[in-house]
Amino acid sequence: MQGQKFLVTGGSRGIGRATVLSLVEAGADVAFTYRSNQEAAEEVVAEAAKLGGGKVVSFLADAEDYAQAKQTIESVKEALGGLDGVVLNAGINRDKLLVMMAENDWDDVISTNLKGTFNYARASVYGLIQQRSGRIVVVSSVSGLIGTPGQVNYSATKAGQIGMVRTLANEVGKFGITVNAVAPGYIKTDMWDEMKEATREKVNLTIPAGRPGTPEEVANTIRFLLSPDASYINGSVIVIDGGLSA
């Protein structure tokens, strides 16, 4: 992936962070966005520099704002000298049972996860069409395939992302662009660490692999989908859940 140029949204932690580091290690130049935690973003840049791979730059940006997404894409192209693909990873959760879910819990998740995906896909796709090549990978979730109690809002956005991926793949495949999604299950990120130990133990019993996945395991799949080796994979959803949804 030497010399390839990518943007990862939500790249300061979890799967996004692991993806940035994986791509840099493979020789790509990478830009990533972060919503508020500048310290975490600086740590990613510093860690990436130690890998001795490609260039890394970070941008403070809100996924919910289309104008900002459009400007960020232009800034990324200027900083990296082009753009070969995007990883649409930025997302939040506001988990509650539907009967207890406030309207803003719904609106915030829809706006960040679903509209944010639209914003960056829309802002980047025209440039990819012009160059007649590119990769788009959306970080969805197994929650968009099987549904998870307490995640009506989150599951709706993740299912929506999968619908967007399959439709957009049909729209832009003729331009040499692939559009795919990964659907992780339980992954050892901040959300996993915030669970009570007893809850984690119960969850592990539902996973055939007997454990949560790691951000690196998801990042490796994303890197593959961005690579030339995945040139004939388009409109697919790659489930990474240790067998949870099998």
Automatic annotation (TrEMBL):
Gene3D superfamilies per the UniProt record, alphabetical: NAD(P)-binding Rossmann-like Domain (3.40.50.720)
InterPro entries assigned to the protein according to its UniProt record, in alphabetical order: KR_dom, NAD(P)-bd_dom_sf, SDR, SDR_fam
Range of residues in the leader sequence: none
Protein name per Swiss-Prot or TrEMBL: 3-oxoacyl-ACP reductase FabG
Gene Ontology terms, MF aspect: 3-oxoacyl-[acyl-carrier-protein] reductase (NADPH) activity
Organism domain of life: Bacteria
EC number: 1.1.1.100
Keywords assigned by UniProt, alphabetized: Oxidoreductase
EC class name: oxidoreductase
Keyword Oxidoreductase attributed: yes
Lineage: Bacteria, Bacillati, Bacillota, Bacilli, Bacillales
Family: Belongs to the short-chain dehydrogenases/reductases (SDR) family.
